[in-house]
Amino acid sequence: MAEHAEHPAYPVGLRLTGRRVVVLGGGQVAQRRLPALIAAGADIVLVSPDATPSVEAMAEAGEIRWERRPYAEGDLSDAWYALIATPDAEANECASAEAERSRTWCVRSDDASAATAWTPATGRSEGVTVAVLTGRDPRRSAAVRDAIVEGLRDGTLKAPHHRTRTPGVALVGGGPGDPDLITVRGRRLLAEADVVIADRLGPRDLLDELPPHVEVIDAAKIPYGRYMAQEAINNALIEHAKAGKAVVRLKGGDPFVFGRGMEEAQALAEAGIPCTVVPGISSSISVPGAVGIPVTHRGVAHEFTVISGHVAPDDKRSLVDWASLAGLRGTLVVLMGVDKIGAIAQTLIAHGKSPETPVALVQEGTTAAQRRVDATLATVAETVRTEDVRPPAVIVIGEVVTVGPQGARRDA
Ligand SMILES: C[S@@+](CC[C@H](N)C(=O)[O-])C[C@H]1O[C@@H](n2cnc3c(N)ncnc32)[C@H](O)[C@@H]1O
To answer: 250: part of which helix (H) or strand (E)?
Structure first.
């Protein structure tokens, strides 16, 4: 092999489904390589006296067959491909020689120059497999792979789908506001969009990055005439999709947490428009987290309940059972509740919740304007007034408020 070292490797994609692959050694190398072999559908036999707990779990799950013994001559017969990674140098040599004789492509973890195949640094994004070989520099391979995969995922590497660009609408959860907190899938779809209909909440900064040909529509400004505002948004989504545009409906947080995402998905389904839903990081968890408040904490809260506070507790339209909520020991997270927090706090106290229950209000969480204000159920209404807390804010009610470093300072 050594005399051919200057020749580059010949890249190829092996189709291993149902084909026998033998892995010798059940250590860290096997642990790293097995998932991709399993994903490729290979018929995998592991030969090794022992294995790491993760590899053992793959055998227990039936993803690989494990023969608990050392390598023996003949193990590679009928194998299309072999991974040699035992801690025994002599066994590796013998297995390598057997692979050469039986013309089985083989990777060696201990001596790449003695191998007949090299494993590229691989990554996948939306149906594209990226495989990078740089000869003897695996870190560079990994770095090149990462750059390409990341670029494909976030859309900064322009590689449009020519055969399969899916028409229709993507309802994308944009996360709480920090542009880094959108999912990679959401970001890629945004980069591929022709039209983006965006809410006020969410990662507005990302809209600045869109190329000039992308039409960005502020959902709040769509004229709705004789329709309800939501109907007008639904109609706009349908209209643009019917015109053959790739449409992204960019929403704050997660589309299905007080986001009316399902109403839009239903309207699209009725109009026969394909719709993809991309989850987002909901403000209900991430905004408290951004100021160091965990919505659960061992020994403090074993549940959290996310509540819409957009209608007052005594409003006939309210679907919230405030009496039951007052009886819970866990965390209450109220969205859209700044205006009604006085009535909400009074109702919770009236149903037995302690007036001393800690409360935190987090305004514009994860953005540059983020601000946390602390109170108790008894004082929160007054605090909102004196501190001029404004929407959007997440209100956290419960002992978790005092768990983190800022909460601890508050108690001190
Ligand atoms: C219509 S709801 C949408 C919630 C969103 N779908 C989610 O999962 O986060 C809007 C409310 O979410 C909360 N909210 C969203 N983003 C926020 C942020 N960055 N900071 C504080 N509150 C936020 C506020 O309570 C706001 O009134």
So the answer is: strand 246-251
**CA–CA separation, 140 vs 121, rounded Å?**
9
Same domain, yes or no, for 76 and 110? yes
Domain membership flag for residue 89: yes
- My answer on whether 407 and 300 are in the same domain is yes
Instruction: Tell if the pTM clears 0.85, that is, is over it.
Output: no
| Residue 24 covered by a domain | yes
Q: Which domain holds residue 293?
A: 284-411
As averages over each run of 10 residues, the pLDDT of the chain (412 residues) reads 64 95 96 94 97 96 97 96 96 96 95 91 84 84 90 76 69 96 92 92 86 90 81 94 95 96 97 97 98 97 97 94 96 97 98 98 96 98 97 98 72 38
Looking at the CA of residue 256, tell me the nearest atom of ligand 1. 6
335 lines ligand 1 (CB under 6 A): yes
Mutate to test the pocket of ligand 1, among 199, 204, 394 (most ligand atoms within 8 A of CB): 394
Q: Which of 125, 115, 198 is nearest to 155 (CA)?
A: 125
- Domain check: are 332 and 304 in the same one? yes
Q: In the beta sheet, which residues pair with residue 83? A: 23, 107
Both 11 and 89 in one domain: the answer is yes
Q: Is the CB of 201 under 6 A from ligand 1?
A: yes
**Protein residue closest via CA to atom 7 of ligand 1:** 253
